[in-house]
Automatic annotation (TrEMBL):
One Pfam family cited in the UniProt record for this chain: COesterase
EC identifiers of the protein: 3.1.1.-
Highest taxon, organism lineage: Eukaryota
Name by which UniProt lists this protein: Carboxylic ester hydrolase
Keyword field: Hydrolase, Serine esterase
Amino acid sequence: MFYGQGDVFLGISYVQPPIGNLRFKKPERLDKFLSVPYNATYLRPACPQADVPDISEDCLHLNIYTPQANSTDSYGVMIWIHGGSLKQGSAQNYAIPSVIRNFVSRKIIVVIIQYRLGMLGYFTTFTEEFPPNRGALDQIEAIKFVKEEIANFGGNPNKITLVGQSAGAASIAGHLFSPLSQKLFQGAIMQSGSLLTCFDGSMGFQNLSSQRANQLCQFSPEQWNLHNYTSLASCLSKMPYSEWISLDGSLLRGWEMVKDGYFLHDIPRKLMTTRPKIPVMYGNCKDEWSYFGTFWTHLILLFMYL
């Protein structure tokens, strides 16, 4: 049964749209809304991904659900970072009645963010053409936006908790370790995910970026190792995202964050020793891996008899 009430603001832009020349660049701050008054009454498209009809590269938006926008109660704030192997998921997945019933009715502000996924968020050459961890940097800008603006929605900017599941939890682990995210939030709740589940610690063990360059632009591994990516940038900057999202749809493991010198400046084992003392609640969703079991049925059957 649905109950509760609140003020809902949908599809708020928090950075410049990552389109045109900004397609594969780090997020740029939004100086002002692109239209005034801003229409925050409808959900915006998801970031490009497989098997979702309503998608767009202009996808860096967030939704705010608050008990009362003009309240002086200074509500606590929960920022939800969705999962999806860094290749899928969106703010569209969360029904407004459920958010109101489970959180807003309990005097909690909920903010659900979107960030670039797959090629647009995590393909990298470790150069200025394709800087690493763009999706994680999108998340940081969303958190900064919330910290700066949430008081205007009745929230307390000094009482922000990051909450996420699967790749969302892995992303939160990255923020716990990252110097770029410090002092932006005060707590974290992580469900079924750690940094190690979405981290390419060898800076090339999976090398999915090199594979995609070869598949999409015939950019060979030999060319990749020469570290000149001008022709690759020319190829991918003009390519419709429809050319690659189907490849991500069949990708089981997903994309990964990498050591980059600014968001994650070292490997998790070393970052762990300098992590700020921020309260963290960690748990696991029931049957979290049952989906992956559908791909590995032969292994599951084998272990049943061992």
